[in-house]
Design goal:
This protein has two domains: 231 residues, Aldehyde Dehydrogenase, Chain A, domain 1, CATH 3.40.605.10; 185 residues, 3-Layer(aba) Sandwich (Aldehyde Dehydrogenase, Chain A, domain 2), CATH 3.40.309.10. The protein has 16 helices and 19 strands. By secondary structure, it is an alpha/beta fold. The chain is globular, with a radius of gyration of 25 Å. A seven-stranded mixed beta sheet has the order 11-14-15-9-8-16-17, sandwiched between helices. The chain has a five-stranded parallel beta sheet with strand order 5-4-3-6-7, with helices on both faces. Helices cover 41% and strands 17% of the residues. The longest helix has 24 residues. The termini are far apart.
Length: 509
């Protein structure tokens, strides 16, 4: 692809959707039966195809989103890296979580049957693409990659904020799947609100993934839960991502913290799910003035869509009008050539006490370049704020490089609370920038996500679309390859781990 003339598909009709869902259901057992190595080769083929068409895809995305070329090129590279990482996960085989307990007539709790457990794909997955990452969380993004890796066909609901980019990317993905020999129906793109909700209600869909607003995600989550056969819904919704700065950290590097915070909350016009929306600083600290000065110098940046811009404007007006809130920097908005508003940052100030008192208004996500500085007088005030925060993706803590003994005890208390609120704790850094690695956890308690045990970034994201099955006393000829005694796929496995400890034996004697 070297041009940007791809036509936008109209909303998917009911008849078209039925055909696509039929195809996905038919493809499910065929795609599941492919060996992990075969599926890995297909994921690599998709990554290769995306790289081959990178120039055209990025050019299309620049027009639709207003995001800069460097950001989009980096994001497309991340998308390809994700696909290859899932391919490596498939080749490794650990994701199948194979556990075998061979029959044992002398087992400590009585005769034990032969038990063989592993993970199987759940079936066709409906993915709702995100607005703010037109590659990494959209058509070929992490949800699609992890579902395909798990062995699940994907029906992708395109985001209306970048329809041409979605259609062009879908063409590349579909072409790569076909060329690599994937079954027909392994991937499909649908468009339109009705098509998305109808697909979510359809019994041929076995799970769904979503990244977006609390209101939109909760509505879809409720649909998934209200089905006659409820299905898993892995939604990433809203997150305020509070950041705490200690006095010790300010003594060491106040200037770096100020510039880092401004850079983080205004990155991408503040349209990152990990944007730090609350900064807790010691009362009377000059860092507030430093941040104010820096925020005033940030140029206007384009919002992704007019709808997002409208929601952002309403949200900051509501927060600025709350009792005890002072406007330090009043953002401006203007309409650029694209017709989508371009905005400058908004910075508000309040106290930790007011933040708790006005939690319903102030401790909500503002999706855009806005942040609240909350000044605290005691560590207890910080703890009360964190306890008042709903589930969030991240909590950031800036400390002295070598905390004193007194500081360590205070920080232990703070981090214990933070760990109950967030899925990732960031120390002496900023949460915007989610490393794509096996150890990453991009999730958190509701409303950050609807499934606190799972991540949407990193290779463990594959676990969302798998479920365990145990075979008991099955004849060898009926066992799936991953749990056959001869282990033809050379899958890592845990064998006869139960009852081997002498402690178990003593406990039962």
């Amino acid at each position: 692809m070297t041009d940007t003339t791809h036509s936008i598909e109209p909303d998917t009709t009911d008849a078209q959707l039925d055909r696509l869902l039929d195809a996905a259901a038919a493809a499910a057992p065929l795609w599941e039966d492919r060996t992990p190595h075969d599926r890995a080769a297909v994921l690599v083929a998709i990554a290769d195809a995306l790289e081959a068409h990178a120039d055209g895809l990025v050019a299309e995305a620049i027009i639709e989103t207003g995001l800069p070329q460097a950001r989009l090129s980096g994001e497309l590279n991340r998308t390809c890296v994700q696909l290859r990482m899932f391919a490596e996960e498939l080749i490794d085989g650990t994701f199948l979580d194979v556990i075998i307990d061979r029959a044992d007539p002398d087992f400590v709790l009585g005769a034990r049957p032969d038990l063989r457990r592993y993970q199987i794909p759940v079936g066709p997955v409906l993915v709702f693409a995100a607005s703010n990452f037109p590659f990494a969380f959209s058509v070929a993004g992490t949800d699609t990659a992890s579902a395909l890796a798990a062995g699940c066909p994907v029906v992708l609901k395109a985001h209306p904020g970048h329809p041409r980019t979605s259609a062009a990317t879908a063409d590349v993905v579909a072409g790569a799947l076909s060329a690599a020999g994937a079954p027909d129906g392994t991937f499909a793109l649908i468009s339109g609100f009705r098509a998305g909700t109808r697909a979510l209600e359809d019994p041929r869909i076995a799970a769904a993934a979503f990244t977006g607003s609390v209101a939109g995600g909760r509505a879809l989550f409720d649909i998934a839960a209200a089905r006659p056969n409820p299905i898993p819904f892995f939604g990433e919704l809203g997150s305020v991502n509070p950041a705490v700065v200690t006095a010790g950290a300010l003594d060491e590097r106040a200037e770096a913290i100020a510039s880092g915070f401004v850079g983080s909350f205004t990155l991408g016009a503040g349209q990152f799910c990990t944007k730090p929306g609350i900064l807790l600083v010691p009362a009377g600290s000059p860092i507030t003035d430093q941040i104010t000065t820096l925020a005033q110098q940030v140029p206007a940046a384009r919002m992704l869509t007019a709808k997002i811009a409208e929601g952002y404007h309403n949200r900051i007006e509501e927060a600025a009008a709350a009792p005890g809130v002072e406007v330090l920097v009043k953002g401006t908005a203007s309409t650029g050539e694209s017709g989508v508003p371009e905005v400058t940052p908004t910075l508000l100030r309040t106290t930790a006490e007011q933040l708790v008192a006005q939690a319903d208004t102030l401790l909500e996500e503002s999706f855009g370049p806005a942040a609240i500085i909350a000044e605290y007088g005691t560590e207890d005030e910080v703890n009360r704020v964190l306890n008042g925060v709903d589930g969030t993706l991240t909590v950031t803590v800036h400390t002295r490089t070598e905390p004193t003994p007194d500081e360590r005890e205070q920080l232990r208390s703070l981090t214990r609370i933070a760990a109950t609120r967030a899925g990732r704790l960031v120390f002496n850094g900023w949460p915007t920038g989610v490393a794509v690695t096996p150890a990453q956890h991009h999730g958190g308690p509701y409303p950050a996500t609807t499934a606190v045990s799972h991540t949407s970034v990193g290779t463990t994201a594959i676990r969302r679309f798998l479920r365990p099955v145990t075979y008991q006393d099955a004849p060898e000829v009926l066992l799936p390859a991953p749990i056959q005694e001869r282990n033809p796929l050379a899958i890592p496995r845990t064998v006869n781990s139960a009852g081997q400890s002498s402690t178990w034996g003593r406990a039962q004697s």
